[in-house]
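FAQ

Q: What does a record look like?
A: Structure on top, sequence underneath. For example:
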């Protein structure tokens, strides 16, 4: 017997239930626009991915406007500074004094959990474990999205498709060749990250430039630490015992921080490659890209999640204006406005990555240049302010 198929209609189909897709669903629902989210993985799998942890002030505001700011405000850790470590010393960049702004440490998993809960409470529909998602007709007026779930074929007719399905998703891949221009830099190293239930070594993040390579001391809460060391692309996680990881981390920190470091068993350990990538434009007819589906930055400047939130803020406003009031002006400019800000964050992440890491070709000259730039950075109010402005987040309309 041929299997039954089901068809439905909604205003927006959102592909991907990462932070971009879930936040878009939440903002659209609050703006009176109906949306369906399709996600390839299970909800537990999405919640289990350990990723970003630093939110710009503007991101916190958007999450508040979306009605998911309560736990973030109660449990997020406001940070008014970061530390740069080099040449055996730590130097504080006072973000708040330089810009009047701060960042908040709150894990991407927690942002995702809050958005999933809000969606469930409002009775909004997310299809998890949707396979074979395919996008059709977005160059005309009647897009259709097809997928399989629960052994059946499904389709949704809609006004718009939002591609929030990350770097490896189907949305960007559905755009005809030639309609897309891509820009990419792949860095010749990765980050080996460890998550553990130990108190962080410092109240603020430490970014360390060391002849052995970059290191970052970050955290997710007052009892959960996230540490990274720069590693080669040929490294394998299984070759890194916890002891080996913490010995390497200690060797890249200043003596005081190394002494204070509390170690414990890792609860997650992974290697992430570093890449800068931008696809232009972010709109093709009735298909709109947001977040990692359109761009990737190396995590050095803590921008990936924040860029996704900024895109979605713009996109939600534009879709609400079109779906509710037939006003397409913001949709027309969505791509150009988003890309202007995206490129500034791509530049900042590239600059911070270049400043803080050892490159394979780095010799003593390059090391001295990095140290001179770091010295200038911490010694000049103008240079520190430029760092602080970018780190805490540029204005949304930029
Ligand atoms: C390993 C790792 C570590 C990171 N660490 C940091 C960090 O420390 N700091 C930082 O700022 N940023 C970090 N990032 C970046 C940050 O996590 C991303 O920028 C952020 O997740 C972007 O959100 P998104 O919703 O656009 O994409 P994603 O979070 O990638 O979500 C996309 C969703 O789409 C789903 N999907 C994919 N294909 C399909 C399909 N065909 N059909 C249906 N659904 C699909 C995926 O399963 C996923 O749930 C990290 C990223 C990675 C991969």
């Amino acid at each position: 017997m041929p299997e039954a198929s089901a068809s439905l209609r909604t205003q927006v189909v959102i592909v991907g239930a990462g932070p971009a897709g879930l936040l878009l669903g939440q903002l659209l629902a609050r703006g009176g626009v109906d949306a369906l989210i399709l996600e390839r993985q299970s909800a537990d799998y999405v919640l289990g991915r350990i990723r970003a942890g630093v939110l710009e002030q503007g991101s916190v505001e958007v999450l508040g406007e979306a009605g998911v700011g309560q736990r973030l405000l109660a449990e997020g850790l406001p940070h008014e500074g970061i530390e740069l470590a080099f040449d055996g010393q730590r130097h504080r960049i006072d973000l708040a004094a330089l810009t009047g702004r701060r960042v908040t440490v709150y894990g991407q998993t927690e942002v995702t959990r809050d958005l999933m809960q809000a969606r469930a409470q409002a009775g909004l529909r997310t299809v998890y474990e949707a396979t074979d998602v395919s996008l059709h007709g977005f160059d005309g007026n009647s897009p259709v999205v097809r997928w399989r779930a629960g052994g059946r074929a499904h389709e949704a007719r809609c006004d718009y498709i939002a591609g929030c399905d990350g770097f490896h998703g189907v949305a960007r891949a559905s755009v005809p060749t030639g309609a897309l221009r891509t820009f990419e830099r792949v860095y010749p190293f990765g980050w080996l990250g460890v998550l553990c239930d130990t108190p962080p070594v410092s109240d603020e993040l430490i970014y360390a430039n060391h002849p052995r390579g970059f290191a970052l001391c970050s955290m997710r809460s007052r009892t959960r630490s996230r540490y990274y060391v720069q590693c080669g692309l040929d490294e394998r996680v299984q070759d890194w015992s916890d002891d080996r990881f913490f010995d390497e981390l200690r060797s890249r920190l200043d003596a005081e921080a190394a002494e204070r470091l509390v170690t414990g068993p890792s609860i997650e350990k992974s290697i992430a490659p570093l890449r800068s990538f931008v696809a232009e434009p972010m709109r093709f007819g009735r298909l709109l890209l947001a977040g990692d589906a359109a761009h990737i930055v190396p995590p050095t400047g803590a921008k990936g999640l924040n860029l996704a939130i900024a895109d979605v803020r713009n996109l939600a406003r534009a879709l609400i204006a079109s779906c509710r009031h037939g006003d397409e002006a913001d949709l027309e400019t969505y791509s150009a406005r988003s890309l202007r800000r995206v490129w500034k964050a791509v530049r900042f992440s590239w600059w911070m990555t270049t400043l803080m890491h050892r490159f394979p070709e780095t010799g003593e000259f390059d090391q001295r240049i990095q140290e001179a730039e770091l010295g200038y950075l911490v010694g000049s109010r103008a240079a520190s302010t430029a760092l602080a402005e970018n780190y805490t987040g540029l204005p949304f309309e930029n």
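Q: Is there anything notable about this one?
A: Residues 329-356 form the longest helix (28 residues).
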